[in-house]
Structure to design on (234 residues):
DNA sequence: ATATAATATTGCAATATTACGATATTTATT
DNA sequence: AATAAATATCGTAATATTGCAATATTATAT
């Protein structure tokens, strides 16, 4: 059994709530256009695809692999061995967490039109 | 008139769509628990507050100022001079963009329960 | 067993991020 | 004009990120 310690660099994660840290990890993982593009691609093909992403994006294979790793670490995608290849797909749970968060924000700000600035 | 050139480091932004880049910028700005906490605080107080954030979070004033700048650059918050102080508030437009994106994803994945991994 | 295909890891250079002390700027008050 | 209060900027150390070539790993097929 091995423990993975998630750090955010110099970030003082211990001062924030679990939800705040979790949302930040998810957002950080999406904070790169290549990773958004990977998500978009996974949505488009509607079924698990792996090495096609390398053909789809203008990045070298090691770079794609790295981005996939980050998405997987953040729990945004899942990967499973499929014979020779690895099959990746979207993890709805993580995306639902994000959706709920922004939905909540939308609800809260619905009736207030920039009431201060 | 001044032009601001938004870069993402070594990131090859020119290969992605405008929406992908925009979402990545927004996500990146939210990719730190302090900035999620700032957003949460702005939602809670429901009205524009500024220096209170320094008292609310366990970070030094220059650090808060830096985080606010990043949120403002990403268009997630707005700031306006209010006498002595600067009043910050949430920019619903940017958050709605995020909400719409994750809503779209939820719709697309609604009926599919991890159908591959 | 070897070769091939798919993916991951390593190593590295260039750049970005985080955090904060020191200092500057801006506005209000006296 | 001088002071105080609020915020921003500068400079800097420690660390993380991005991208890729080279290489390693893993699994299938011959």
């Amino acid at each position: 059994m091995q423990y993975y310690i998630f750090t955010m660099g110099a970030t003082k994660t211990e001062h924030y709530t679990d939800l705040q840290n979790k949302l930040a990890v998810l957002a950080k993982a999406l904070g790169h256009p290549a990773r958004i593009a990977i998500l978009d691609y996974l949505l488009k093909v509607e079924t698990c695809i792996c090495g096609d992403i390398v053909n789809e994006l203008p990045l070298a294979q090691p770079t794609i692999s790295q981005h996939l790793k980050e998405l997987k670490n953040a729990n945004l995608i899942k990967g499973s061995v499929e014979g020779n290849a690895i099959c990746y797909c979207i993890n709805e749970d993580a995306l639902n967490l994000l959706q709920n968060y922004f939905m909540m924000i939308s609800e809260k700000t619905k009736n207030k039109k920039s009431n201060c600035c």
